[in-house]
């Protein structure tokens, strides 16, 4: 009666592309900060700011994913309750009487 949600899994190519993209972006940023013609404290500040930005982005992505998973779990529980009610419902039962097919 209910449809089981299909687990979506990323392919190895997608995973590899994401890791490579992240690595290239971090390396390019690190090289750019290192090559910057500025005092050491300015470069250190920029490096810490980049690390803070990256950790904040990971945290935000995790929170969004967790909220989505909770929504899917609640949806599945609600669907299971509805399925149980529909299975137990007998449209031919008289109000206040015994279920159809059973005699008191």
From TrEMBL:
The chain crosses the membrane at residues 12-34, 40-61. Residues 14-66 form the YiaAB two helix domain. The keyword Membrane applies. GO terms for cellular component: plasma membrane. GO terms for biological process: DNA damage response. InterPro entries: YiaA-like, YiaAB. Pfam families: YiaAB. The keyword Transcription regulation does not apply. Keywords: Membrane, Transmembrane, Transmembrane helix. This is YiaAB two helix domain-containing protein. It comes from Streptomyces coelicoflavus.
